[in-house]
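User: I'm curious whether this sequence folds into something compact or stays loose and floppy. Could you predict its structure so I can see for myself?
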Amino acid sequence: MARQGLPRTPGAAPAQPPAPVQENEQPQQAAEPVAATPAPAASGGVRRGLPRTGATQAAAGQAPAQQAASAAAEQAEQPAEPVSAPLAAASGRRGLPRPGAASTPAAAESAPAAPIAPAPEQAQVPAAPQPAAAKTQAQPAAKPSAAPAKPAPSAPGALAKLWATARGKTLLLAVGLLVLLGAAVLAARWLVSLDSVQSFLARYPGETHLPEGAPVGLPAWMGWQHFFNIFLMVLIIRSGWQVRTQRRPPASWTAKFGKNPKKISINLWFHQFLDILWLVNGAVFVILLLTTGQWMRVVPTSWEVFPNALSAALQYLSLDWPTENGWVNYNSLQVLAYFATIFLAAPLAAITGFRMSGAWPTRAEKLSRAYPIEVARAIHLPVMFYFVAFIVVHVALVFSTGALRNLNHMYAARDAVNWTGFWIFFASLLVIVGGWFAARPILLAPLASLFGKVGR
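Assistant: Here's the prediction. I'll summarize afterward.
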């Protein structure tokens, strides 16, 4: 053990040494670590009393090194056990000074304190939070993404919302058509004001002369043919559009004849049934047209029909319409329109419809390769749109160029301005509307059962 001090008077009993301090002894209640300098361990051989003469400086120089080595050894042996300075050693008696050595304690206090190794708890305590700026500098810069982020889709506008509905599409198309017609009218009126265009209109008034022996007037059979044709055309267009847009047919139909009859929808059967009636009516019309000489009114007989048709189109667009005399002769634009409808559009509709129907011979492989069904479908729908456009323009011109007189020509077979033709037309219009609403599966099923088997 180290010496604890000298007696106060000669012959007195030496002072009792303090109780020994265990190295691993922990304070009973230590809320916070003690900042006082711990006493050096006894095993280090450090003297606790006053230094001898001339040994103060040496002890002061050796103490820090010995204490640091002792603290490092303790941390290596017990890393998980907290080490703190004993309170008993800090409060122990260090002895009395010798006579004439009053300044020795002050010198001992002025000696540099030995460094204290940090306790394990203090070493494990996380570092104090750094300032925000320091953290930002310490973190590495984020890597740029491989692809830029897609912008969020913008909300659809009013026109997009309107176009998304069927009524909206119809409205927008109608407005666009009116805008185009307005632009065409303005362009035509500017053209007819030019001197060169006026001389062209004077040379080609809009109609060509009929051949000698051409009939005058319209016979009664043509009025009946006109009614049957428009009645069947309206129902054909309606049933054809139903076939194209239907998802689940309301009923099916199977023919009674044939080895392997195909099952089709009742709407398709009705469409094909109307096609047969329309072809029969068209064949009768063409035969009567050729035998009575009426073909000369709708078949071009001179190349001058083309410049006259252009003249008639300019007059229509400029709202200065040509003089109508349909009882005697059609203008050249009407002649070309009737010729295209009777001898071009109608045969195309019949040929393409026959290719898509079940009557087409499936065993004729060479014929099927020469006339693919895809070609027929690509032609059939535009032909239907042509018929729709022709009906709309035809009806508009009939009512805008003298409705009473034109309706008498078409339905009453007379050249007069009265209401006879109008009432016949009105009655035929009621029949067409009634046929439109009557063409339903509940009424079509009894008719279809006469030619085949109707089922689900």
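Summary: Residues 64 and 114 are 5 Å apart (CA to CA). Strands lie at 252-255, 263-265, 452-455.
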